[in-house]
Design brief:
CATH topology of the largest domain: D-Maltodextrin-Binding Protein, domain 2
Number of helices: 13
CATH architecture of the largest domain: 3-Layer(aba) Sandwich
Order of helices and strands: HHEHEHEHHEEEHHEHEHEEHHEH
CATH superfamily of the largest domain: Periplasmic binding protein-like II
Strand content: 15-25%
CATH class of the largest domain: Alpha Beta
Largest sheet: 5 strands, mixed
Strand order of the largest sheet: 7-6-8-5-9
Distance between the termini: 29 Å
Number of domains: 2
């Protein structure tokens, strides 16, 4: 889903400072609660507009429970909330891969009893190969693997190259937008230049910074994390960087043929959002049932249909889907997961300051 501008350095430093306090907290409640559900409610914390209502309703009916959904708009928001309270009350959370890594290292996640989740056999090899932070699903189960791309209004843009360097095309100056997201934008430039989106080479990062500042940024209306899809749908932008599901959610279906959404062949950043059980969850067993239920192919197909996603994580679900995805798994072959860069993130922060905050 759409990711607002990140503040990873602050979060990482904050995490380091209080990690020892967190890890020293008593976990006596955890053992007592893991083996039984203590309520008829399951508390789920997910990205906004990322949960298919039909699957939630059928789970509630089958298990005789109420699923209480709470939403977050960024990993930072979710992480900060859970760090602020070791008893936030959630049973299932949906962090992205780099935050799975951070939270696992801080002891914030329960180990998963995979023997109780037979549908894990449907998790695709490609998603597990990309999930280097937890490839054996000890603490997390992939929910969706995707990437941002570019939407083009074909009525207004008659010719264009399908690369990230489309933003250097001066013919469409002041009709283009990129996401207000440091790792996405810098990652796009690095990929276009042939570098890893996780590079720690200062020279490569500087080359990407110069490309963005001298070739791309002068043609952009702005960097936009929240309104890019609505503005593209209204015609304000003709070329926009963002997530397919956001664009097509705003555009009437009878106008979808006027839009070309593509993932540049250059490669770029990708993400895996995962399902995890936070430490101390009161309904551990029910949470396992929920995660397993999501990955029943007939159920997961409803998720794919709702958002026109490719079956990147659960390929078996393709047999049950009724829609055509906006992009395919093959398009993500040379895309990279964004790693937690730790102290090296400071280089990115400094580069981003000159891109985002300097005219």
């Amino acid at each position: 889903m759409s990711r607002p501008t990140t503040k990873h350095l602050f979060i990482t430093l904050f995490a380091v400072v209080i990690a020892f306090t967190l890890l020293g907290c008593s976990k006596s409640e955890t053992t007592e609660s893991k083996n039984s559900t203590t309520s008829k409610k399951l508390y789920v914390y997910n990205w906004s507009y990322y949960t298919p209502d039909s699957v939630i309703e059928s789970f509630e009916k089958e298990y005789g429970v109420d699923v209480v959904l709470d939403y977050f708009a960024s990993n930072e928001e979710m992480f900060t909330k859970l760090m602020a309270s070791s008893d936030a009350g959630y049973d299932v959370i949906f962090p992205s891969g780099d935050y799975v890594s951070i939270m696992k290292n801080l002891g914030m996640l329960e180990k998963l009893d995979k023997s109780k989740m037979d549908n894990l056999k449907y998790i695709s090899d490609i998603s597990l190969s990309k999930a280097t932070y937890d490839p054996t699903m000890e603490y997390s189960v992939p929910y969706y693997m995707g990437a941002s791309g570019i939407a083009v209004n074909k009525k207004m843009v008659p010719s264009y190259d399908k690369t990230w360097n489309i933003f250097a095309d001066t013919r469409y100056k002041d009709r283009m937008v990129m996401m207000d997201d440091m790792r996405e934008v810098i990652g796009d430039a690095l990929a276009y230049l042939g570098y890893s989106v996780n590079t720690t080479d200062p020279a490569q990062l500087e080359e990407a910074r110069v490309l963005i500042n001298t070739k791309w940024k002068p043609n952009l209306v702005k960097f936009d994390a929240e309104g890019f899809a609505k503005a593209f749908a209204s015609g304000e932008y003709w070329i926009a960087h963002g997530y397919a599901e956001a664009f097509f959610e705003e555009i009437p279906e009878d106008q979808w043929s006027d839009v070309d959404f593509f993932l540049p062949l250059d490669g770029g950043p990708m993400y895996i959002d995962s399902m995890c059980i936070p430490k101390g969850a009161r309904n551990y067993d029910l949470a396992l049932e929920f995660i397993n239920y999501i990955h029943k192919p007939e159920n997961y197909a409803q998720f794919l249909d709702r958002f026109h996603f490719p079956a990147s994580v659960n390929m078996e679900a393709d047999k049950y889907r009724t829609t055509t995805p906006f992009y395919t798994v093959d398009m993500m072959t040379n895309y990279e997961l964004k790693d937690d860069l730790g102290a090296n993130l400071e280089m990115y922060n400094k580069a981003w300051e000159t891109i985002r905050y300097v005219d």
